[in-house]
Design a protein that fits this description.
The chain has helices spanning 13-16, 29-34, 60-71, 80-87, 92-102, 123-133, 153-156; strands at 78-79, 111-112, 137-138, 150-151. By secondary structure, it is mainly α.
Length: 175
């Protein structure tokens, strides 16, 4: 790529919100980009995340995530990454995506961020659930925007063991 005045160098795709132009591409690449099914920089969904319209079934991974959310006892939480680790598949983002699309029918407030910050846009609804279930909270400092508490992850985190065993207090059992 030829440096121009004001150019920061390199491909500025996401930062500059521009896709490379055909004249800036190496020979042969411009012709290949015309054959792409999706224009460069405008990638759509590769697979559908929506339930199968014919059968109404959820994707298998989403169903497994929701099953874990149903297992979390009242007053306890699991971080997105904890759920992925428990499943042995995916990661926090995949769990978050499944919860965002399909989590309305399960106790969604029990699958949380690992730092204990309440789910943006749903803080008050989640907080009402946490208080009703007795989920451990840490009061917010006065400098915190909105003065909303956070979850006390050390005490509220569930390690996946059945509650009747007396385990799962979160005390270094799942850190």
């Amino acid at each position: 790529m030829v440096a121009r005045q004001g150019d920061r160098g390199g491909y500025q795709g996401a930062l500059g919100n521009t896709a490379p132009r055909a004249r800036d591409m190496p020979p042969g690449r411009a012709e290949r980009s015309d054959r792409l099914s999706v224009p460069c920089g405008r990638m759509g969904r590769m697979t559908s995340d929506e339930p199968d319209e014919v059968s109404g079934e959820l994707p298998e991974y989403a169903e497994r995530v929701l099953d874990v959310a149903d297992l979390i006892p009242p007053g306890r939480v699991m971080a997105y990454g904890d759920v992925a680790e428990w499943l042995g598949e995916g990661g926090p983002r995949q769990v978050g995506r499944a919860m965002a699309l399909y989590g309305g029918a399960v106790p969604w407030w029990r699958v949380v961020r690992s730092d204990g910050v309440l789910l943006a846009g749903h803080e008050l609804r989640a907080l009402a659930h946490y208080r009703e279930e007795g989920t451990p909270l840490r009061e917010a400092s006065r400098v915190t925007e909105g003065h909303l508490p956070r979850l006390d992850m050390k005490r509220a985190r569930w390690d996946g063991r059945p509650p009747e065993t007396g385990a799962g207090t979160g005390d270094a059992s799942h850190t």
